[in-house]
Amino acid sequence: MENTNVYYLIFALFIFGLCTLVFVKFIELIEYLYLLFYKKPAYVHFYFRLKKLPLEEERFLKDKFVFYNRLTKKQKTFFQHRVFLFIKDKSFEGREGFKVTQEVKLYIAATAVMLTFGMRKFLLPSLSKIIIYPDVYHSTINNTYHKGEFNPKLEALVFSWKDFLQGFATRRDNLNLAVHEFIHVIQINSLKYSDVSSAMFTDASKEMLALLLNKNIRARLDSTEYFRDYAYTNQFEFLAVLVEYFIENPLELKQNFPEFYLKIREMLNYNFRGY
């Protein structure tokens, strides 16, 4: 009799597990259909308990990030929560005597959160370690000096702090090292994972790159020379450079290349003031 009860229990657990799996897959299917139709996730922000930054750290975000100041009051609480979790999730290492302070962590984390704020998954599991040098550093990847790079094998993002800050010092030159390198992280992350945010980013980026085949757009690219030459290195660099232009001068990009502007807006799921 006891054996029979055990079998019934195992069978019941199996049925429950199967039903749960079917339900989860059904929800995933519904959401992907929603993404296909509306070009955005069904929802982005849902948290059980929000983490809040100290007042001095929130003041730092207000002073350094135009993006943060454009958010609503509720969105700012979500932004702070994500910054808190991002810092907790990553390892920060200084090299050649560079001291990693809380301000350094805030600057880096807020950049990542800014770029992923329209995505549900924002911790970027392809990245586990952030290494900061005081200035340009020697890279063993190609035996040259670099300002920044992402190493997918080591899951490491590397910055020259001098050049990181320079990217934010001038907000309208369309040059931002941190934005550029974090887009590379998001690109790799989106290729490795199959969540709805990754699918949104990957699909929109493919559609944007496909615009390069349009003869009229190609002719405008050649005649205006609007984007710097480095954008044409390869498709990954093209995308990263375009996002730099989008973040620093969204309205100017919209005026010059509205097709790219709309695709980047869709790719990042941006629906904020000023973008």
TrEMBL record:
Keywords: Membrane, Transmembrane, Transmembrane helix. It holds the Pfam family Peptidase_M90. CDD domains: Peptidase_M90-like. The chain crosses the membrane at residues 6-27. One of its GO terms (cellular component) is cytosol. One of its GO terms (molecular function) is aminopeptidase activity. This is Zinc-dependent peptidase. It comes from Mesonia phycicola.
